Amino acid sequence: MAIIVQKFGGTSVGSLECIEAVARKVMAAHQKEQHVVVVVSAIGGETDRLITLAKSLHPEPPSRELDMLLATGEQSSMALLCIALLKLGCLARSYAGWQVPIQTDSIHGKARIVNVIPENILQDLAQGYVVVVAGFQGVDRQGQITTLGRGGSDTTAVALAAALKAIECQIYTDVEGVYTTDPRIVAHARLMPRVTFEEMLELASLGAKVLQIRAVELAGRHNVPLRVLSAFKDGSGTLITYEDKTMEQPVVSGIAFNRDEAKIVILGVPDMPGIAAIILGAVAKAHIEVDMIVQNIARVTNTDLTFTVHRCDFSEALRVATEAAMGVGAKEIWGDDRIAKLSLVGVGMRSHAGIASHMFRVLGDEGINIQLIATSEIKVSVVIDEKHLEAGVRVLHHAFQLGVEPQREGKDDPLLKEAITC
Predict the structure, then answer these.
(1) More confident residue, 316 or 413
(2) Which of 181, 185, 245, 267 is positioned for an S-S bond with 332, CB 3.0–4.6 A?
């Protein structure tokens, strides 16, 4: 019998009624002669509630104890789902992360999975059980409970699917799949039936919230087919898999964006080897992730450096960067935490020139100024003023015909044809 892994997020198990609906969906899959392993998140809002409780007692709760506390959210969900399955007459058994075991490193709050030992689960599956596993958690070599960070249940599901050699890992959420962009901004955004791992990695890293980026990376590394489905509507969702070389890919598959961006600009830095490492190294030591980086020669002996960080890290990044920059003789430093990143993504860009120039022209015609640009083989990203983000998404979605079924090389749109052929 084939093994499938199903993961249900916090909104999917947000009430007892939702949990009972999930139980019926799981049992239906089990009755199709499939071995089913289920991964569950905490009930929606539960993790935030537990964090608030902890911080009401201590402004910075000890990481070990916080992990012990937060792990109970997923454990409640797994036990309730098993109870619902047993009520339906379905054999079910629950596992906390340490019982599988899912082995991790010892970094509390941001642990990484190092190994999954599936024998216990395989034994239960062979006896006809549905196995329900608490997502988001594991255990280190010292036997301490760890958590994987926000979105960690996706990673748990993919890691289990890889270890169990599952035929598919199904991520059930509150949307029907992966869309060409956020349908709350563009009403005619289109559900994509298939997306490559490369495209999904870019979309996830650039702000798409459907999947956690670590889960996509892990799935790509172990060749685990991922499928994003709605927990509330029937449908085939979006399959995330390797690129099919026999099929023509759309030039642009989707538009991602991220509002939670801030930029820091350092002017008049002495132009000498290692200067960027000094400034950005100080930011890295503060455990702040840097996204886009642009450096240019402003004058004969000076250089300017601009980089972006997550908005929640802006104040600390500005403080640390100011200290480091002034220490090496920078003339001026300032920041802006009201920017957004807007990106086009598509593996079809590899074989088509002119996509970036068309994007810039479309935004320019809309009166949207571009502050920074970054490109890769399958993406073009720009930083713009946050107030122009939704207008930018809409105009690009229309310009690249993402609201309709893909046309061969966009021949119905002369502007897009020009972008492809120039």
Answers:
(1) 316
(2) 267
Q: How far is CA 110 from CA 72, 151, 206, 352, in A?
A: 17, 11, 20, 39
Residue 167: give its domain's CATH number.
3.40.1160.10
Whether 45 maps to a domain, the answer reads yes
> What confidence tens digit (pLDDT) does each residue in 185-237 have?
998 999 999 999 999 988 888 777 788 888 999 999 999 999 999 998 889 99
Whole domain around residue 153: which residue ranges?
Answer: 3-174
Give kind and range of the element (H or E) at residue 118: none
In a domain, 233, yes or no: no
Q: Any idea what DSSP says for residue 231? A: S
Comparing C-alpha atoms, which of 166, 152, 164 is closest to residue 112? 152
| Residue (of 331, 333, 328) closest to 278 by Cα position | 328
Question: pTM for this structure?
Answer: 0.81
* Interval 392-418: pLDDT, tens: 999 999 999 998 665 444 444 443 444
Same domain, 142 and 257: no
Which of 137, 156, 174 terminates a domain? The answer is 174
Cβ atoms within 10 Å, residue 129:
20
**CATH number of the domain encompassing residue 291:** 3.30.2130.10
332-345/254-270 β-pairing = antiparallel
Q: What is the dihedral of CA 117, 119, 121, 125, to 10 degrees?
A: 150
Q: How many CA atoms lie within 13 A of 59 on its CB side?
A: 0
In whole angstroms, how far apart are CA 32 and each of 125, 128, 314? 14, 12, 51
Q: In DSSP terms, which residues pair with 194 in a beta bridge?
A: 239
Q: Which residues pair with 332 in a beta bridge?
A: 267
Phi-psi region of 58 (alpha: psi -120 to 50; beta: other; left: phi over 0): beta
Q: Which helix (H) or strand (E) holds 242?
A: none
Show which of 174, 195, 225 is a domain's final residue.
Answer: 174
Number of folded domains in the chain?
A: 2
